[in-house]
Amino acid sequence: MDALRPSSHCRRSHARGSTRVDLLLLVAALALPVVDWLSGGLGLIDPMKAIFIYAILGLGLNIVTGFTGLLHLGVAAFMAIGVYSFAILTADIYPFQLGFWPALLLTIPIGAFAGFLLGGPTLGLRGDYLAIVTLGFGEIVQDVLRNLETITKGTQGINPLPPPTLPLPTAWGGTNGWYEFQADTPQPWYYLFLLFLVLVVVANRNLERSRIGRAWMSVREDDLASKSMGIPPVKTKLVAFATAAAIAAFAGGLWASSLSSTGEPSNYDFQVSILALCIVIVGGMGNISGVLVGAMVMIGVNDIVLQKIFSWMAKQELTSTGSVFGSPNNWKFLLFGLALVLMMRFKPDGLIPARKPRETGSARSATVRPKGEAS
Amino acid sequence: MSAMGANPSTAPVLLDVRGITMRFGGLVANENVSFGVREGEIFAVIGPNGAGKTTLFNAITGIYQPTAGDVLFQGATIERRFGGMAIAQAIIAGVGTSFGLVVAVNATELWAAAIDGNYEYGEPFPYSSAILSFLATMKDLSFGWGVVPAILGLFIGISASLVFWRNGRRTPDLIARAGIARTFQNIRLFQELDLIENVLVGMDSRLHTRFWHALLRLPRYFRERRIASAKARELLAFVDLADKVHQKAKNLPYGHQRRLEIARALASEPKLLLLDEPAAGMNPAETVDLMRLIRKVRDRGVTVVLIEHHMRVVMGISDRIVVLQYGKKIAEGNPDEIKSDERCIEAYLGKEELG
Amino acid sequence: MELDVQYLLQQLVNGLSNGMISALIAIGYTMVYGIIELINWAHGDLCMLGAFFALTLIGALGIGAWSGPMAAFGVVILLLATAGFCGSLNLIVDRFAYRPLRRAPKLTLLVTAIGVSFIFVNLGLFWGGLPMTVFGEGNAAAAPKNFPAIVPATPILGGEPGQVTLTVRDLMIAGVTMPLMVGLWWLVRHTKLGKAMRAVAQNPTAASLMGINTDRVIGATFFIGGALGGFGSVIYAINNGTIGFQLGYRAGMDAFTAAVLGGIGSLPGAVLGGLLIGVARSLSDGYLEARWTPTLVFTILILILVFRPSGLLGLKSKEKV
Fold first, then answer.
1. DSSP 8-state secondary structure symbol assigned to residue B40
2. What would the mean pLDDT of A292-298 be, rounded to a whole number?
3. What is the pLDDT of residues A154-178, one digit of tens each?
4. What is the pLDDT of residue B348?
5. Which is more confidently placed, B122 or A120?
6. Are the beta carbons of C307 and B54 separated by less than 8 Å?
7. How far is B339 from chain A (nearest CA, A)?
8. Do B184 and C321 touch (CB under 8 A)?
């Protein structure tokens, strides 16, 4: 269809459209706490944190699955690696006791290194074999975290963990020049997570529209043609894999800090990996805005909409504990599964199937083009 | 003959195929095929369907490993040699795996000795004595928990890195980077990418933007983007696709897709271009354009080897031709010689009109 | 350290016994993968539903109280009925979930399978919450249910301390799995349906041009794979003693690992992979610690794939150019 239309025009409107979606989302996200406050507290701020974390996780996975086309079923393992390295580096039962910021930054290289160790020997494998390797890695990490009790405290988890701190003059309410995030004031957390999400989105876009992103996508489109054009396949996949692992570990560190605990190892099980995969697919594979929408839909429905409906049902006394069918929580998997099946049947390209604007040098060269050559 | 001025019959040999044999189980696809392609030539490989032409291309470009024989490019084979790098990698992998495995199987004891044994709650951590305890515990490991995993790890690491080295000796990406580009018989474009992106992927081996440059948008990224995109547009103009820069490849008509594949291959600035049936599925007008394009490619200084069934194209543009039948070379020569060769006519040409 | 031969042999027997069950379930993965390149995520959960079906049937017919030859007859009924149930369920899922997606990308199919798996898990949860006497009174829906030992673990060989023991149950496992595997091999090699299956696996388009009804062949594959899973689920449940709605994930994971280890798409590979995984698990349980077994199994899997990227018996895939 596109072939019939003047291409440059069509493309540019796409690009503008997508940027508009992103800006709209950003404005809405910035305004939400205000709305929440004005309306007397809808309880939306806290669940939104989970949406941001999952969006970051989804953006990491999107690099491997959406851009590079590799099926990755163990992204939760890298999140767990981030969670536990953050915890071990900060908690006071361990000797390292770094602050929030250095520990959070360290989760990035630690995650990347873990991704490199797993991906290095296995990324030459064909797609489905790689899928089971990542799945197996997810199980290994969980078991190791559970079994190495001396180090990880097993199923007890590690807590407490330090919250973020920001420099704030004592005169403005800081203690000793620092402001420490409090568990009962969600707004600062909200904006901090939003800031990190924006940073990850920008990083994703920068990579997507570069030589690196093109190489990833060429592997996805046709790996044989890609290597015949001189793209080293394993190295290209490895960069994608390690980047995704780093982003997932970063999301993990952030999550651990906001919970002030690692929780138990099974919090980072296969379900989490699948949830992240569904976010990527539901939103629209390889589409950054799609991942954002996917996270909002999947986590939003799960943590906000369903909870509201359930509590309303409980108030109307529509639920019962006598029968397995009476508790709405028992229906979650069914709803989730049906949604996935129907979605794949009728909207397989995701909620935002519109072709992503693949900006290359040229299209964006409007910005670097000499003056007078207006587009 | 050659528009470059050099006389191809005296120009140096660019691609030297020496006794290539390709066997798949019991099937012999190529048997002892040899020929040389000189710089600046347009060289054609012809033969009936199933004669092993595409297999030969795949052997040259590293998609298959020849059962026997060598492919020399500019006088040497293209492969990663077993040298310092490979040995260093094997040692690093072996020692790393060995150390990692020992630490992993003794993680609890090591942690207890080094960390728990030295850390007093609230006291500063004595890093140096922690390291000493770590080393002491490592030294005291029993044979079964120390030496066995160490040797096992060393063995796994070294053998894995040797296996990887062997499998990665002669890969398509290495050969492409050395200066041999190709197109495919059944077009293999990056369907969801724009035309210009397809070309830029082809250009990848000539670009220098690193991960960090792209991630942080350093000035180098913008500089190279400007240059690369100008070059890609020039190549698209070269194959007459300048007006479709931002279309998706899959939306192009067939003939245009073939030309885009040529542009993508040229983007890597190859010395040698292998075209696998470039005229397949083209109408007569497109075929004439294609012949003109192939000559233009050669005039850029790129040597061309093509597989083609279209005799008008082959006889019209080739300097020399090699004929394959049942995987064996049965003739080699210039178009006039091939046209008059009894065996070629019998095997192949007799069935088709001569251009 | 002295090597206790009897102990080692016992671990091997247990391992082979469990491995055969894994192999039977693994065949369901490998058959579907071989023909439409789908990792049938719901297969393990299908087996879970099969186990619940078998337990319900026991309750309905009172099989648990049967003894002697009647018990053997009961097992046969259970096996056949559960196989029919799982096969039909798999066929129905294929008809309504996968068939409309034949031309869709592989990932779309896989996500559908994951969705089906969630639906199955939820159905298993509901099933376990039904007020039935076989499930035990007062058990919560999610609690594991006891599966009656209709095949006793009576030793037929050994049985004294210090002897390698082989039980009736081991015999039943071998007696069910081996004929099924041989039968399947014969079916794939020597029947018209088997030939059609191999043709569709090679090239569905060409097969349909040759007049093969590909949808029917794929449906038959789902039915057979599901039925084998049904057999597997019954002997798994008898051998395991308890069932629960989450058993599909564990059992499915073992079987899937076995299929990949052997080379996914290869029938002998699935059997070999299943046996190897079973033996590796029981050796690890017996000589290391049971809690490290999954880690060890997956590490072995990853290592084998590093050296043999297509699994032990998988064909090296030729790139089609």
1. T
2. 88
3. 888 888 888 888 888 777 777 777 8
4. 66
5. A120
6. no
7. 34
8. yes
Q: Domain coordinates of chain C in residue numbers?
A: 27-249
- Measured CA to CA, the distance from residue C253 to residue A74 in angstroms comes to 14
Chain centroid, CA B295 distance in Å: 24
Q: Name which of C307, C318, C321 is nearest B160 (Cβ-Cβ).
A: C307
- For residue B47, the tally of other CB atoms under 10 A from its CB is 24
Give backbone dihedrals phi and psi of A133, rounded to 5 degrees, phi first.
Answer: -65, -45
Give pLDDT, residue A175.
77
pLDDT of C146 reads: 81
Name which residue leads in pLDDT, A348 or A79.
A79
CB contact under 8 A, B24 and C307: no
The residue written with tokens 């402001």 in the block is: A179
**C-beta atoms of A222 and B182 within 8 A:** no
User: For residue C284, which residues of chain B lie inside 8 Å, CB to CB?
Assistant: none
Average pLDDT estimate for A335-345: 86
Please indicate, yes or no, whether residues B289 and B261 belong to a single structural domain of this protein. Answer: no
- Is A133–C302 a contact, with Cβ atoms under 8 angstroms apart? yes
Are A233 and B177 in contact, with CB atoms under 8 Å apart? no
pLDDT of B2 > 50? The answer is no
Average pLDDT over chain B, rounded to whole? 87
On chain A, the residues whose CB falls within 8 A of the CB of C138 are none
What are φ and ψ of residue A182, in 5° steps?
-110, 145
Give the end of a domain, one of B236, B269, B302: B269
Q: Where are the domains of chain A?
A: 11-356
Q: CB pairs below 8 Å between A and B: how many?
A: 169
Q: What value does the mean pLDDT take over residues A39-43?
A: 68
What b/e string do you get for A29-63 counting C-beta neighbours within 10 Å, with b at 16 or more? beebbeebeeeeeeebbebbbbbbbbbbbbbbbbb
- Residues on chain B bordering chain C, Cβ-to-Cβ distance under 8 angstroms: 24, 54, 58, 63, 156, 159-160, 163, 184-186
Asked whether the beta carbons of residue B111 and residue A151 sit closer than 8 angstroms, the reply is yes
Contacts of C321 in chain B (CB under 8 A): 54, 58, 63, 184-186
| Interval A104-118: pLDDT, tens | 999 999 999 999 999
Nearest CA to B338 out of B325, B349, B352, B326 is that of B349
Give the architecture (CATH level 2) of A11-356.
Answer: Orthogonal Bundle (1.10)
Give this complex's ipTM: 0.89
List the single residue in B24, B63, B160 with the smallest CB-CB distance to C321. B63
On whether the CB atoms of residues A128 and A71 are closer than 8 A, the answer is yes
Residue B175 and residue B65 share a domain:
yes
